[in-house]
Write a structure and sequence with these properties.
Layout: E1 2-12, E2 15-26, H1 31-45, E3 49-60, H2 62-77, E4 81-85, H3 89-97, H4 100-104, E5 106-107
Family: Belongs to the anti-sigma-factor antagonist family.
Organism: Catenuloplanes indicus
Protein name: Anti-sigma factor antagonist
Length: 121
C-alpha cells in the first residue's frame, strides 16, 4: 500500500480539505499505517474535511474497514467531515453492503458533488 496526504486547494466551509490517497491493498499488514496517517492529518492540519481517495485502492479486508471506521470516528470527534471518494465498483459494493457508504459518505467524480454533511457525534 502507498499512502499520501496533501492539502487541497478546493475550498470547503470551515477550513482546509486534506486528501488522503491510497494505492494498493488495505489489509491487516498495513491498516494501522492508513489510520495513523489520517490521525496525523487531523493533528497537523485540523482540517474541516478529509477525503480518502480510493481510486487506486485494489482490495480491503475487515481490518482495513475497521481502520476506516476508527479514522471516521477520530475525524467526527474533531468536528471534521469524513468522506471516501472514487471507490472501484467492487469497493463501493463492500461499502454499501456493510452500510459504511451511508456512514462515511461516498463521492464519485463522475457524479455531481454532494453538499457537505454535518458530522454526527
Amino acid at each position: 500500500m502507498e499512502i499520501a496526504s496533501e492539502l487541497s486547494p478546493e475550498p470547503v466551509p470551515g477550513g482546509p480539505l486534506v486528501v488522503v490517497t491510497i494505492e494498493g491493498d488495505i489489509d491487516y499488514t498495513n491498516s494501522d499505517e492508513m489510520a495513523g496517517e489520517i490521525w496525523n492529518v487531523l493533528a497537523r492540519h485540523a482540517p474541516a474535511a478529509i477525503r480518502v481517495d480510493l481510486a487506486e485502492a485494489t482490495f480491503i479486508d475487515s481490518t482495513g474497514l475497521g481502520a476506516l471506521i476508527a479514522a471516521y470516528r477520530a475525524a467526527a470527534d474533531a468536528g471534521c467531515v469524513f468522506t471516501v471518494a472514487a471507490p472501484s465498483p467492487a469497493f463501493r459494493r463492500v461499502l454499501s453492503i456493510t452500510g459504511l457508504s451511508d456512514l462515511f459518505g461516498v463521492e464519485d467524480p463522475r457524479e455531481p458533488a454532494a453538499p457537505q454533511r454535518t458530522v454526527e457525534r
